[in-house]
Structures are given as structure tokens and as C-alpha cells.
Amino acid sequence: MLSVLGVWLYLALQVQAAETVSLIEFLDRANQQGLHVIHSSNLIPAHYLVTIDPDQPINRDQLSRALLRFGLVLRAVSDHADVVVRALASPPPQVPLVPVVGRDLLSLSATVGLEEIVVTSSRYRLLMPQGTGHQGLDHAALMQRPTLGNDALRLVSQLPGSASTGLSARPRVRGGNEDETLITFDGVRIYEPFHFRNFNSLFSAFDQRIVDSLDFYSGGYPAEFGDRLSAAMVINPQPPEALFDVREIGVGLFNLSYLQAGGDADQDWLVDVRRSSVDLLAGLSENDVGSPAFADMYGRYGWNFNDEDRLSINVLLFGDEMNINNTARTETSQSIYANSYVWLKSENRFGSNLAATSILGVSAIKNDRKGSVNKPGLVTGELDDSREFRVYHMNQDMAFSPEENWLLKFGWGYRYLQAEYRYRASQNIAAEFAGLSNLNRPAQANVSVDETGHQLALYSSFKWSFTKRLTTQVGIRYDAQHYEQTTHEYQISPRVNMHYQLTPTTDMRFGWGLFSQAEGIHELKIGDGRVDFQVPQEASHLVASLNHQFAGGAIMRIEAYEKRGITTASYYQNLTNPLSLLAELQVDRFEVTPDDYEAEGVELTLSNNWRAIDIWANYSYSAVADMIDGVKVRRSWDQGQAVNLGMSSQYQQWQWSVSGTYNKGWLTTPLQFNNGLVVASPRNSVQFGRYISWDIKASRSWGFGAYQLRLEAGLTNLLNRENQIGVDYALVDGQLQSTTKSGVPLAPFLDVYWRF
Questions:
Q1: pLDDT tens string 291-349
Q2: What is the pTM of this model?
Q3: What are residue 158's phi and psi, to 5 degrees?
Q4: b/e burial code for range 158-182 (CB count within 10 A of at least 16 → b)
């Protein structure tokens, strides 16, 4: 290890004549030298880095070359001023990296590096490390990389620390459950933003065209993010200037869409609508699944009063309507799921040192399910499940930076909550399977729960650069829950992050903190027999990382983490088959109540641009286990070892990319038939075979004067590999028989967009 570190330090010393800064700072320095460049913080992600010679003056040609690498261009707005805009042509050309040798020209890289916190407008910012466990995907990466159904948010599963069977769009992060990831869009918390939420959450509710960037925190995140144990997914919408005068119709195998946006310097607007176009579930897990449908819509209208103040009204709607069954028609399900958000957002700057963002909004969720299971000799049953939730919320975030080397962030949030549950179910389990589940499930259930409540959040964090090399962030967070009938709790979460710049191209990061998660008023496990909310969970994160950028532009990152459960809650899963339409009615439904748990691992990330080919790869070695009655039991999604790799480039007029995913295989609990009873072996004691999937995507644009035609096409699981993720069991003539359940087979997608 010391020898490797020595090599890194040696390589870093070779480029100390140069300086690595963010693209934002590079533009700010250009303005300080007399150029006049206007740019938006939303359009330029903070992890874009450039390596420059600080002793040389900056000219417009250098700026153009730097921006081109990231798919951006300069557009003249007067004889003396330019604005940075996104290139509207087909995917931007790949400019080879130019190594820095002595006082050579600048080299460029787009990878995880120095992050930013916007203090006021794009011209006033404090560039400081945002903490450990942070990865980013910009708009170009979201559009270029292949994924099932061309769903950009699924790309999170390709980042280190994420675990997914490939079927669900909801990742499990560093050993946590699916519900342990905070998801925000435009600063608003979004509850379960997935289509087919009742069937493995197949797709996200966001059109990739309106997503500007996705910041993913897999641990050690700062105090502004709270109430989730494992991760934070921060989704930023496209800024107004990126979509001015855009009208686009999309036709694809999965959806029809219409996008239109416009505006000027004073006001802007955007409307994006999608509607499903085919039976989306056909072939994903079991054949002849019925007729599911989905739709989503995002709208925004904004007013720019001056350079310091902006107000916008936003609407996000998404929902599903499903009538599906499995191949044997032993399970049927009908559901209507609707999720709606309306919010008013105010962004204000007070002088050059203070900025505030205020949000006032309302959210509503409706989830109705009906279904039946009819498996003779196993289980029969029905359910009727109706739920409604409403959330009235307001929050404010402020940033104050009177000095160049320190920043104070503070904020608060309040939510008023309402929930209604109506649940009826009947169930008859065959005697041979009656002892398999550890839940006490009555033959008939008829439960109603009404609850109202309040949630309050307060946070403050202080960042200070002690020296040019050492930056420390200290924060604290307070979360409180008051549900009128059941819950009166609060949590205090201190957090510390440190960043040390060893050389201009090598840095170390360290993070520690406490993280909490209260069971949301919409998360009552009523289908598993609970009528009360569980106590909030708490966990500690310890993260350390080393990052290095080589002279040729390659980036390497090594991160180690440890996460320990302090206060735990029960979670529920099916022992053998995660693909069931009505999970709570199955004979293998199981309650897991750990005393504590531990997740630990090491992640290695590499990225580079070699001969105009973007290359990325990451490797994870991890373990997660529950401690139950003094015995460690691995969680079923414990990957052990996982690899994600890929490349993207432009060949003639085509942008292409390919990616691959590997892990050692998921864990399962085998069943046995002994003395007339079906019993379970030790939980998660058997591992399925290796999970391998290759995906590919190609895209191209054709121009016809003022019009543009764009094609995006790809294949998921290119080799049509049967990746086992579950097992179905049945008793046939006194013999226990099993049927393998696999994940996503070979699945194509095709999207055609006409811009006019």
C-alpha cells in the first residue's frame, strides 16, 4: 500500500507546474482577466475539472476548447459578452485529453472530483469538497449510458455501493434496504418516484431529457440531507436556458412523449408529458402478464425578477394503472397508483455573501390494490388494500459566506401529514407450509388506521478551510416526529467531513456521522400485520477515501466504509421469490428483526478518456449481515464482490456505449420437505450463480434545417443470460419441486425524437 501511494505521489508531483480547478472557477478566472462570460450553476456540474497553467493568460479559444469537452459552447450575446449554453447538435464530439507537460495547454476531465456549493448566483460560489461517498452523473452521461428502458435513474445501480437485481429501479445502497435512500427533485423530497411501485418499481418517473444531473451520496453525506439511513439521490432538473425554444415529440417501445419549453430573460416555462405505449412488463419476469400502463408529467413556470431573485411554480404528476397476472394465472393484481406534487420555489440572493432557497408545497399519494392468489396445495387468498396520504410542507435553506475560506449553511423544514389505511385480506395456507413463515397471520384481517402528524427538521453546518490544503465541515441535524396516535420521537445527528489536498491532483477525505430514519406516515407495514409505527432507526457511518488524477487525465478513487446499526427496526421479505405480485400473501413471508447490523466494504473507481473513448470501471468488495440472537446472518442482497464497467465514444455520426455488470450472485433460503412439513434451511445460506449482464446503446441525430431527428436504441442483457434471482416451490405428488425465477431477459428499447 505504501508503495502504491508513493507512485501516486510521484505522479502527482510531475504536474505541480499545473493547477487543477473546477470548470466554474476557470470561467470565473477568465472573467477576472477581462472576459465577460455568463454561466449557470445548473448547466455546469461541479465535478467538471480542468488542469491549467496558472501563469498563462486565459483567452476565448481556451474557453471554447474546455467547454467543448463537456458538450458546451459559447454563444455571443453582445460584442463584449458570451453565454455558456449546451450544444444542441447530436452528442458532443469527444476531444482527446491533452497531458500537461511543463507549461503545455490545458487538459480536461469529467469525473468525480471537487464539488461545489452555490452560495448565490453562478458568479458567486465557494468551491469546497462536499464530503465522502459522493458520485455524480451529468446530463451527458445520463443520456449516453445504456440502461433498461432508457431509464436514466437506473444508472445509479452502476455506481459503486449500489446493489440491484436489474429488475428494480430502486437500488440498495451499501447493505441498506430499498427504502433507505432519500430522493429529491429540485429540492423537494419525492416519495417512491417509480412506476409499477407495487411490482418491483420497474422504472423511474423522470424523463431523462429533463434531468440535468444526478448527485448520488452513498454514505457520509452532510447534515442538509436527513431522515434516510443509507444514501441520498439529488436530482437536478434542466435549467431554463438549456431548453429554450425546444419542441420535441418522442415515440418509443415503452412510451410516447411530448416536451416543449420556452422563455426569455424574464420568464420561462416547460412541459414534459409521457404516456406508456406497450405492455411494459411483457417478458420482464413472467409471460402473459396483462395490461399495465403508466403516465407522468412535469411542468414549470418561472419568473426572473433580476439577477438575484427567481420564483417558480412546479408540478410533478405520475401514476400507474395495472391489471396483471403471472403465467399460470395463480396470482392476479389490479392497482391504481397516483402521486402528485405541487410546489412554489423562491431563490434569492442578498448581496454577494448570502443566498436563500424557500419551498412551499403539497404532496398527495393514492395507492389502491386488489388481488388474489390461488395456488392449490399451497395458499389461497385475497386482499383489498386502499391507502391515501397527504403532505403539506415548507422548507428553507440558506448559505452565508462572508469570507473566501468559510461557509455557513443552515436550514429548516416542516411537514404536516395525513394518512388513511383500509386493509382487508383473507388467507388459507396449506398445512404442509403453515410453519414456514414466522408471522402470526390470521385467516381474516380487516384493519383501518387513520393518523395525522408533524415532522420537523433543523440543520446547520460550518465549512472552514484551515489552510489551502485542509478543509473541515462540521454539522448537526435535528429531526422530530409527532404522530398524534403513536409516535413521539426525536433524533440528533452530528456529522464531520474532512478534506486534505496532498498535491494538486491527489486528495484524501474522511467522514463520520450519525444518521436516522423514522418510519414515514406512508410506510406503515399494515399488510404484514403492524398497526403501529416502529421506532426510528439510527446508524453510524465511517468513510475514508483517496482520490488521484493522473497526468493523462485518468482518475482513480479508493474508498473504504463501515456502517453500523445502533437502533434497528423490523423489515419484511419473501425467503425464496422476490417477484410475487402479492408478496404479503405468500407462504414464505418473513419478518427480520435484527439486534444490530454491520456493513463494510472497499470500493475502487477508475475513469479516463483514452483516444476519444470515455472509460469507467468500479469494483466493490462488501459484506452486510444482521446480528440476530448473537448470530450473524447475511442479508439476501449481500453481493460480496461486484464489478461495473463500460465505455462510450463517437464513431462517425453515431454515439455508442456499452456497459457490463457482474456480481457473485444473490443469496436465497432453500426449502426442504421433512416429515410432512416444508421447512426452511438457515436463512440466506445458499448463493445463486453469478449475475452477469451486458447492455449496449447507440444514438444518432440528423439535421433538417431547423428540425432534428434523433434515434436512441439499445439492448439490455445482450447475451440473454438467465440470471437467477428467485425460486418458486410447490408440492406435487408428495414431492417438493422448485422452479427457477430469473431477472431481465434480452430486452430492447427504441426511442425516436423529432425536434421542431
A1: 788 999 999 999 999 878 999 999 999 999 988 887 778 889 999 999 999 999 999 99
A2: 0.84
A3: -90, -5
A4: bbbbbbbbbbbbbbbbbbbbbbbbb
Query: Can you tell me whether residue 179 is helix, strand or coil?
Result: helix
Least confident of 152-156, 416-420, 715-719, 749-753: 152-156
Contacts of 553 (CB under 8 A, 6+ apart): 97, 99, 107, 108, 109, 608, 609
d(CA 143, CA 338): 27
Helices 23-32 + 60-68 axis angle, to 10: 170
Q: Contact, 58 vs 29, CB < 8 A?
A: yes
> Which range is least confidently modeled, 69-73, 92-96, 227-231, 717-721?
92-96
Local structure of 180: helix, strand or coil: helix
Extents of the domains making up the chain: 2-116, 134-755
Helix, strand, or coil here: 17? coil
Kindly tell me the burial class for residue 102, based on how many C-beta atoms sit within 10 Å of its own C-beta (0-12, 13-18, 19 or more): exposed
The Cβ of residue 442 has, within 10 Å, a number of other Cβ atoms equal to 10
Taking 80 as the threshold, does the pLDDT of residue 116 lie above it? no
Residues 467-513 have pLDDT tens digits of: 888 999 999 999 999 999 888 999 999 999 999 999 989 999 999 99
Count of Cβ atoms closer than 10 Å to residue 739 Cβ: 11
| Per-position DSSP letters for 266-307, written without gaps between them | SEEEEEEEEEE-S-TTTTTSSS--B--EEEEEEEEEEEE-SS
What is the structure's pLDDT at 14?
41
Residue 57 grid cell: 493568460
Higher pLDDT, 181 or 33: 181
Longest alpha-carbon distance in the chain: 89
Percent of the chain with pLDDT over 90: 62
What CATH code is assigned to 134-755? Answer: 2.40.170.20
In 484-536, the DSSP E strands lie at 488-503, 506-517
Cα 191 vs. chain centroid, distance in angstroms? 13
Would you give the DSSP letter of residue 243?
G
What does the DSSP 8-state code read for residue 121? S
pLDDT band at 172 (very low <50, low <70, confident <90, very high): very high
Question: Taking all residues of the chain, what is their mean pLDDT, rounded to a whole number?
Answer: 86
CA-nearest of 592, 588, 527 to 728 is 588
Q: pLDDT tens digits, residue range 535-569?
A: 999 999 999 999 999 988 899 999 999 999 999 99
Residues 404 and 467 sit within 8 Å (Cβ to Cβ): no
Q: What is the helix (H) or strand (E) element at residue 143, kind and residue range? A: helix 139-144
Give CA torsion, residues 402, 215, 550, 510, to 10 deg: 60
Which pLDDT belongs to residue 296? 96
Contact 42, 236 (CB under 8 A): yes
For the record, the C-alpha cell of 22 comes out as: 473546477
Q: How far apart are CA 281 and CA 289, in angstroms?
A: 7
Q: Which residues pair with 287 in a beta bridge?
A: none
For the residues of 638-685, what is the DSSP string, one character each? --SEEEEEEEEEEETTEEEEEEEEEES--EE--EEEETTEEEE-STT-
Question: Cα–chain-centroid distance for residue 196?
Answer: 17
**Mean pLDDT along residues 362-368:** 97
- List all residues 6 or more positions away from 71 whose beta carbon is below 8 Å from its beta carbon: 86, 87, 91, 92, 139, 140
* Eight-class DSSP state of 522: T
> 663, 652 in Cβ contact below 8 A?
no
CA quadruple 157, 158, 163, 164: dihedral sign: positive
Query: Using one digit for the tens of pLDDT, what is the confidence trace for 566-601?
Result: 999 999 999 998 888 899 999 999 999 999 999 999
Q: Which residues contact 590 (CB under 8 A, 6 or more apart)?
A: 437, 438, 439, 572, 573, 574, 575, 683
Residue 572: count of CB within 10 angstroms of its CB = 17
**DSSP H/E element including 116:** strand 116-118
